[in-house]
Amino acid sequence: MVNTLLNYLITFPKRSPRISAIAAAAVLIMIAAATVAALRASSLAGQQPTWWREAPIAHSPEHEEATLNLAEQVERGLLTLVHNQQPADGAWTVEITEEQANAWLNAKLPKWLANRSIEWPDQLNELQVNFEPEQISVGARLTTNENEHIVAATVEASIDDAHAFWLRIAATQAGRLDLPRGWTIAALREWLPDSIRNKDSAVAALSALEGAAPLFPDAAFTLEDGRRIELLTITPEQDRLLLSLRTQRNP
What is the pLDDT of residue 54? Predict the structure, then answer.
């Protein structure tokens, strides 16, 4: 789901749902809290990132219905694939296209976060991801009192030798204006409400986004029948994201 990477997060371990939810939300909404001053500082902020597409995602009932249908197909397809794989099958691959990821982000992510008591900011809409070799970009349209801007973050997702899952913010932008990475994350920390900021899950998510710790010490989750699904690699390619996984039987 989307995963991309966010699609993958919806099936992550139930033992850490709030960490994954806050991390997913933070990747998409962190700029909203940090870039208002920067938006006034440069004309570059008013320009779209080079990868942004102007095609409408959900500007009419027809588009909304098509987007929702595709998002649900992505969820059902991935969950079916996950449950059908057996330990004897070896490693297997999930391919998520930009179109599939964008559908899930727009149709499903806000509701998914709301179910976890995380409110989606009204100022953010029209989410998009961009997959390129070795790079994942996530952006949204930010509406302020004055105008609209495209805000974005470049993220790096990886699995280390200890099988921990890392999700780092590599760069942040307002339009085509590059923003200091550390400043943006610090602004997000200050922007979060006290009720969320001091929770262990929020501390863990922010630490992960800074690259100080893995988001999940173990990049795996367990199905109801005891099978263990391990995420082996995350490979962004042009217009698609490849997830390599392996199904194992728990000892």
Answer: 72
